[in-house]
């Protein structure tokens, strides 16, 4: 059975951010992920992680001013210096949490813009150079434009091409079954095709992005296929609880009781990279 990580930016929001770590641990989670830790000090985040014996699967690089509509900076050449400051600012949080993965958000820009594409590739190369010596993996994730209008990275072929072009097994894709369903459907053939570059998986129902299994996606079958694939990482629970986090956790209990003991900080798993696809 998959090993699940609670996304603390979506789940346990009934608690303050720091208190969500203990709430997730009390609910049986051994791993967490979240969007941004930057409103808290690295020390306070690190203490919450250590006190609750949690693994931090990933969080995002600084993504600009979220409240003003920023959704990342990588594809925005005019904000490169701000992006570089974020690369420096993230390191104390990496050291405090022990995470081995960071998500680089692209920001809002036209996908067909040559300037945005060049900026995105350049930002990825710079990020990789900045963190590779620390043994970190950079995640990129196609996100649907219904939830995030204008988001640059919303195409799976471009994401695959970017990863293969980067030429490093330290650049991987997050495959979110919810986003995939909204963007392209074809969930399991898409998963099989992209598996060689997948470094993290996330799950939610569709179309409402609630608890897995509560809408049109067959989560039992998805989890079986994840197991059959040999995927060795976590499955992030990035969903919006319908009526409260604890009230909605009935779906996960059979999987938690059936899973094998979790391996802390599993070895970095790589797969052979498929050739880049031509871009239309």
Could you list some keywords that capture this structure?
nine-stranded parallel sheet; alpha/beta; 9 strands; 280 residues
Helix content: 25-40%
Mean pLDDT score: 92
What radius of gyration results from the CA coordinates? 18 Å
The count of β-strands is: 9
Walk me through what this model shows.
The chain has ten helices and nine strands. The chain has helices at residues 17-26, 42-51, 80-89, 91-97, 114-131, 156-166, 177-183, 187-194, 219-229, 253-258; strands spanning 3-7, 31-33, 55-56, 59-60, 101-103, 137-140, 171-176, 198-203, 234-237. Strands 3-2-1-9-8-7-6-5-4 form a nine-stranded parallel beta sheet. Helix 1 (17-26) runs parallel beside helix 2, helix 2 (42-51) runs parallel beside helix 4 (91-97) and helix 3 (80-89) runs parallel beside helix 5. The longest helix has 18 residues, at 114-131.
């Amino acid at each position: 059975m998959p090993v699940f990580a609670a996304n603390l930016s979506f789940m346990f929001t009934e608690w303050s951010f720091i208190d969500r770590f203990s709430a997730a641990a009390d609910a049986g989670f051994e791993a967490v992920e979240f969007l941004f830790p930057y409103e808290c000090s690295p020390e306070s985040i690190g203490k919450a992680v250590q006190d609750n014996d949690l693994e931090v699967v990933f969080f995002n690089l600084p993504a600009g001013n979220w409240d003003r509509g920023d959704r990342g900076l990588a594809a925005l050449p005019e904000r490169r210096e701000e992006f570089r400051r974020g690369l420096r600012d993230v390191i104390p949080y990496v050291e405090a949490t022990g995470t081995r993965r960071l998500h680089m958000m692209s920001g809002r820009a036209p996908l067909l813009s040559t300037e945005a594409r060049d900026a995105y590739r350049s930002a990825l190369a710079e990020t990789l150079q900045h963190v590779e010596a620390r043994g970190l993996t950079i995640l990129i994730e196609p996100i649907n434009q219904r939830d995030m209008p204008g988001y640059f990275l919303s195409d799976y072929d471009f994401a695959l091409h970017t990863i293969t072009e980067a030429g490093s097994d330290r650049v991987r894709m997050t495959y979110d079954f919810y986003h995939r369903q909204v963007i392209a459907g074809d969930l399991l053939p898409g998963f099989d095709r992209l598996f060689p570059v997948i470094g993290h998986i996330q799950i939610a129902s569709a179309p409402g992005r609630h608890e897995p299994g509560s809408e049109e996606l067959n989560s039992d079958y998805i989890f079986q296929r994840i197991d059959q694939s040999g995927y060795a990482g976590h499955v992030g629970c990035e969903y919006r609880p319908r009526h409260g986090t604890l009230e909605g956790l009935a779906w996960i209990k059979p999987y938690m009781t059936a899973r094998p003991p979790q391996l802390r900080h599993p070895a970095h798993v790589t797969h052979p990279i498929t050739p880049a696809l031509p871009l239309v």
